[in-house]
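User: Please predict the structure of the protein below. I'd like the answer in structure-token form so I can feed it into my own downstream comparison script.

Assistant: Understood. Taking the following sequence of 136 residues as input:
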Amino acid sequence: MCTPLIGGIIAGMGSLVAAGQQAAQARAQARFHERQAAMERQRGGHEARRFSDRVRRLAGQQVANYAAAGLQLDGSPGRLIDDSAAEAALDVGAIRYGAEARTANALYRAQQSRANARRIRNVAPFAAIAPIIKVL
């Protein structure tokens, strides 16, 4: 009678330890996703700034090329430069939106990992008691 009970207690303790390790792993996964979100946010800002700089240089080159050709910026050349700038603004917005979407997804995965850690910790006592009850 005592031997199976001791075995059940040991199995229950093993379940508690395993649950603690699984919960710790889920929390570590959540921290990873949070770091991923921060990096996505930084990357999106960096890409948007680089793209904006490239567009500004292109606009400057367009103005210089039109001026070198003796064209006034009134009319078609000016509209072309304005259209390019408007398209670039949309592209920058798309870059930022994509980065924010990736950031939100990573934060959601972090939230899910934390919820998994809580569920594991909540179920652990039952997993520990089950082998003991089975023996009785």
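That's the full token string. The chain has two helices and no strands.
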